[in-house]
Q: What sequence folds into this?
């Protein structure tokens, strides 16, 4: 498994897990990983949740921050981390929701629309931003978000709809938006708004 910068960030950012050892552990026993209970770290013993591999109950936490380097093992090296705990842990943290990008971006001036079985690249004629809970019936965006309609014609299929956490018109009188999944490759290419143009 490759440890890219995003995963590294998530590992650092994810304190509710701790390395732990069982009561019977020797210096050669692997470290296990447990999700911390409400009582937090128990370095003196008395851990109150089992490790992810469920192999034991009693033990103590190690005061060692979980880092990607702990999971990079040479073939002949003694394994530091219990393989079952490691697999479970990595699966848990990589399953988390994609991050939300919160940079302000300009709504684009051209959009692609599907019409009459053709894909068209059209200039946007108008932008309409509907607040959460106030979307029109034809809007496909969930009501918890701001819905941005970009109209490039009077017929509804000449509109593109997108959902955002926030939308507003800035001092340049342009529609600016922010708050969507950073996995969205299309919107991540939209131009960033300079700091002094956000208000
Ligand atoms: Zn384990």
A:
């Amino acid at each position: 498994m490759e440890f890219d910068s995003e995963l590294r960030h998530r590992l650092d950012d994810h304190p509710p897990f701790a390395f732990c050892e069982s009561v019977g552990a020797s210096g050669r026993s692997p470290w296990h990983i447990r999700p911390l209970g409400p009582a937090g770290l128990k370095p003196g013993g008395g851990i109150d949740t089992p490790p992810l591999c469920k192999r034991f109950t009693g033990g103590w936490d190690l005061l060692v921050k979980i880092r990607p380097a702990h999971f990079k093992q040479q073939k002949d090296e003694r394994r530091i981390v219990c393989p079952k705990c490691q697999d479970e842990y990595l699966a848990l943290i990589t399953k988390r929701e994609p991050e939300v990008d919160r940079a302000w971006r300009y709504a684009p001036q051209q959009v692609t629309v599907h019409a009459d079985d053709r894909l068209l690249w059209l200039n946007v004629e108008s932008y309409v931003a509907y607040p959460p809970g106030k979307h029109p019936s034809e809007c496909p965006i969930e009501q918890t978000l701001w819905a941005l309609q970009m109209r490039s014609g009077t017929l509804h299929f000449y509109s593109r709809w997108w959902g955002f956490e926030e939308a507003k018109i800035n001092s340049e009188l342009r529609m600016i938006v922010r708050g969507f999944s950073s996995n969205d490759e299309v919107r991540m290419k939209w131009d960033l708004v300079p700091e002094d143009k956000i208000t």
Notes: The pocket of zinc ion is lined by residues 32, 51, 53, 55, 82, 84-85 (CB under 6 Å). The longest strand covers residues 17-22. Residues 83-94 form the longest helix (12 residues). Residues 100-197 form one domain.
